[in-house]
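Why show two proteins at once? Because comparison is the fastest way to build intuition. When a single record is shown, students tend to memorize it. When two are placed side by side, the eye starts asking what differs. So, the first record is below.
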Amino acid sequence: MSALTPQSDMPTPTTDKITQAAMETIYLCKFRVSMDGEWLCLRELDDISLTPDPEPTHEDPNYLMANERMNLMNMAKLSIKGLIESALNLGRTLDSDYAPLQQFFVVMEHCLKHGLKAKKTFLGQNKSFWGPLELVEKLVPEAAEITASVKDLPGLKTPVGRGRAWLRLALMQKKLSEYMKALINRKDLLSEFYEPNALMMEEEGAIIAGLLVGLNVIDANFCMKGEDLDSQVGVIDFSMYLKDGNSTKGSEGDGQITAILDQKNYVEELNRHLSATVNNLQAKVDALEKSNTKLTEELAVANNRIITLQEEMERVKEESSYILESSRKVTKDRAADGHALTEARKQLKEETQLRLDVEKELEAQIGMRQEMELAMKMLEKDVCEKQDALVALRQQLDDLRALKHELSFKLQSSDMGVKQKSELNSRLEEKTNQMAATIKQLEQSEKDLVKQAKTLNSAANKLIQKHH
């Protein structure tokens, strides 16, 4: 771990030494990464002769944003050029495991995130480039299919994952440059999502959109159903584009590049750990929210149940008090009305038995009605099947008649085989007659089934009326 941390004896340049010559760079520790032809070159800041320049200072936000835009544009140039060259040399369809293609998507993600306005949520501020990409379907109708496909993917849960999936689908469709140009041309819509000096709002965004035209020569194929696009960490791997700008230093320069790459890998590893921690915390928060919602619903159901039970208890108390009062009155009048009470009990017992008999009969009637409804459904199903068979037989009869006409025409136009064809014609006529008889039988059977269904329905209605 100590070998990956920045060296304490490395001097750092002061702010007053930074001049216009240090612009268009990406700063890593005590090195600067700048464009040199088609490569990024590492140079020590102590080896560059810098003269003081009072303005602009690095604390100026406009200067920092302009510097970031230039760096991202240079990285996009290198990424697109390297991807096209390597893909043409490879000579096959690219997939998601191809390293230059992965780095291209990381660079595009950084370009789309540059100057993005933060939206405040209950978890803090959130920056997502999915919002601007959703506008493309309003500007280019062809992009509506991509947006719908992204929304239908089951594994995507975050806006960042949906934005990454959108970029991959647009590249597969070879429309990424067209969509980006249409989006950049509408600064009035982009101003809702980006700061005024963001990359998508400036000239660098239009340059990158023009560079994307070259990617139309690449064939890419992605399978995003099993790919986890939500939790990927988008870190630019500078080692794919770095070249030592000071070739005279030899092994000492190689050691410095190795040290800076080690430092970069250390920072990336820390970033991955932090991203994993954030994802775990986000998952815990989501689980707690779901648990809280479920507990709230269960509490509301329990409260409703308690209220219902209280109402039932009050009703039972009232009934108990009424029964107790009635029993007291009956006890007082028992001596005088003993015979009447016996008769009343006997009558109550008879009415109870009668009620039980009626309930049993009702249950039997309900069971018979259910059986009759089931029989009706089976009869309807049988009628439908026979109707389908009747349609199929009619179709066969029509085919046979057409075949008969065709054979008759051939018999008239040919003198050979007249006898055989006449025999075949007679057979077809017999078969036609048989099938017509079968159709009549099926129709008669269908009428019988309909009569049976009506009879069962009328019987069910009579039973229901009798019960009522």
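Second record. Ask yourself what differs from the first in the token line.
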Amino acid sequence: MENYLLRTGITLPMLDKLSVIHVAGTKGKGSTSAMCESILRAHGFRTGFYSSPHLVAVRERVRLCGTPIHEHMFAQYFHEVYEALYNTQRFKDDMPKYFAFLTVLAFHVFLREKVDVAVVEVGIGGIVDYTNVLRKVPIVGITSLGLDHTSILGNTLAEIAAAKAGIMKPNCEAYTVNQSPEAMRVLEKVATDVKCSLKIVPEYNSYSFQNGLRHDIALEAYQMNASLAVQLAHAWMRVARENKTNHRQETNGNEIINGNSNTDLNKATSIDNGLVQTLTKETVIGLRDCKWPGRFHVIHTDSADFYLDGAHTKESIEICAEWFEQNNRCRDKVLIFSATGDRDAEVLLSPLQKINFRAVYFVIPTAYKYTSKQNDNFSILENDELLQRCKNHANIWKKNYNNTTTHIMECVSEVIMHLDTENCDISVLITGSLHLVGASLAIIDPNLCLI
């Protein structure tokens, strides 16, 4: 990564000037990052946001001020970065892979567009993630940890926690949620070793609200992510003001940061033991207005109500199943499912088998059967391999729960057309993979992710 950045004109000292909130974790790192970015934007800061994967269009991964960068901007920076890398190859195919390239691209965008802060979500793991080329990160967040990507990160919570904790840097401030004792011991040890602070965020229901403006969050998992987002955003604002104070510029007695007057943020938000206790109006607005498609997401159409959630771990699938069941106790229910990579489909399907689905569709996670290489959702995997995976998932379902009608289909559009022919008012749960959710959104509401 250092090599790729240098070949495109970015030295590590230049990258050090990018003020970053770095977020890792197994579950909820995307929604935590999105809420954190939205809070900072509501406070008036110019934000960058790098996340993965995208749902419909690759531009979703690189956002400025909450919006995916425009096609023209993406094309401009893409060609600048690609040509710089291509022209400096030392040997054939001396080029970064897909995620590495997009990471270099994102850093270029954020530096050139002069964002105040960039919220950067880790791809996989942390210590060896491409985003961890960052050396100076003031604020780090680690969301709930669980078993995922075990072939890469390890088979135990301790091994996974060690991988995720790799984003901690000397003298940074790290924040996390309540973890299992096994994972927390590792996080605390790493924090001690690298000499950074580590704080556990409070329960969301413990916050008080200024001026009576509240934002209630029904899902417990989202409450946890929201609390972490609040602490990350406010910690960054506090550090930014402290740094600015060191190079103070007086304007009528008030320090100015990017157009915002320096109100006493600590007093306004009630700081206790380094943690925010009271939420300001701007923070509540940021939480309320945050849009994060494909996660606990409901779309109502004339033919069906679609419930989309990109859950792909045991714990997140359990939460997803509970959310769907609570909202659809008295309706006909249909499941569309796909799991990718090395994930244990039997573990993922188990919580879903407790729901009385009328039909279950196991589908290749692409919108249409034939997808060209120019499409942002193109997969390099062979169709036969993907279809066999669907058949394996169907066999797992039948082995444990044989009373449901099952279908195997080659793309999401085939499933949607089949649902239309049934001509019935139904609730459809789409889960197991963010790639599946993205393919579904490309058909149901393709513009939603680009708003």
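One difference worth noting in the second protein: Residues 259-268 have pLDDT under 50 and may be disordered.
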